[in-house]
Amino acid sequence: MYIKFLDILDRAHTGEVCKLKDWDLKVIAGKVREKLKEHGLLKTLDIKNPINTDDGLADEFWKAGFELAVEVGMLCMSTDRVIKFTEEELRQCINDAPDEMKLGGGKDSFKVVTRKPSDGKHISPWLGAFGIALDENLYIPVTMANAQYKVIDATIPGTLKTIYGRPIRSRTPYETLGGNYEARLQREALKAINRPMMTAQGGCSAPTEYGNFGGVGVPGGADPKNNLNVALATSELKTDYTLLHKVAHFMNCETYVYGGHFSFIGGFAGPPEGAALTSIAAACLLVPAHQASFQYVPCLNTRDASNSGRETVWASSVSAQAISRNTHLLPGGVVNPVSGPGTEMLLQEVTVSAMNAGVSGYSFCEGVRSAGGRYANYTSGLENKYAAEVMKASTGIDRELANEIVNELIPKFEDKLMSPPIGVPFTECFDLATLQPKKEWKELYDKYCEFLLDRGVDLSKAYLPSS
Asked: What distance in Å separates the CA atoms of residue 316 and residue 279, rounded to the nearest whole number?
């Protein structure tokens, strides 16, 4: 295991030299367009069918994305060198990657499995306050409010604004201590709701590797065997010593790595077709470069930072279908709305993104970053419960029905994506004493459960065993 990773580090010192500006503007932008043109994929975006239904198109995207991964590789920004792999090496790494992973413990154990589009197999919801900044006094109740819902497999907590009133400064001892403090608060919250063995993501409050050093695999820290040990690559197709330090730390802890990468429409990859292509390439490259057992590779839009608009839904669906149809990898998506808690728009956005994840073959899906994560304490447990239910209830429906539903919902909010309603903070939509949603918020949730039931999607199926 060490030998394989040491080989990656060697390539970060011996690969071809490439400056960051050239990588972004010449290598990525140029090669992505070249591959799209070569495979006839330019302007294949189908606005009328945001969830792709063309298997042949998904397969052609896979071919182009795999070729992009081989021909481009991944830039190590710390050394200005390119880490590359031969076609044979990359195929072997993908073939050797796990096709299922067991996480959690006791009654909270679960499996993440390889899936195909609309196959009815279990999709694993990893949901919570998802990196949203939280006041210290709210960290435990917010974590409890999300993790209390058994339909959620693993929790992605919020981030601490402070540690005992002090800001968590990047790359300082504050961050190292903050990682441990966060792990202790997580453990206290999960124990309080009787889910002590629930898988959680530690190091959420850590802007660099120091929070992981202090918070994962050390006394008082998170158990690395039951922690989502994330190393999130830089867009597009970049890594650095901060990320590689995390990978090395997780390897020292004798555990797995949760690799991730966001692809951006309107960024260096260009149009939706380009973002889908770099997403596929990232899934391939994360396996050897970050030794990733999971490949979290969603697409977002630089214009509004959502993944609920037509272009982003389509790019994510094509990428997920390409990976899931052609490999046994464990790819993951995201529910990243721009509207906030207590609003009807949030449930509309969540429906679209969660349903896309369920039908397009993702093995797991993260969320819900309510209000785009822009406002402290703007989160609640209810949108995460709803997202998990929609994901799980959607896994076996056909993509045509999913398109009918998302095409009914998207027109209701797409003109608001640039100026969405931010809703209300946690304390205004949840009762702190009972950790239950307040009446108005619960009534909106009930409305959208009924909306889906009327269209043939019964959320109660989320609680039945998957096929």
From this structure: 8
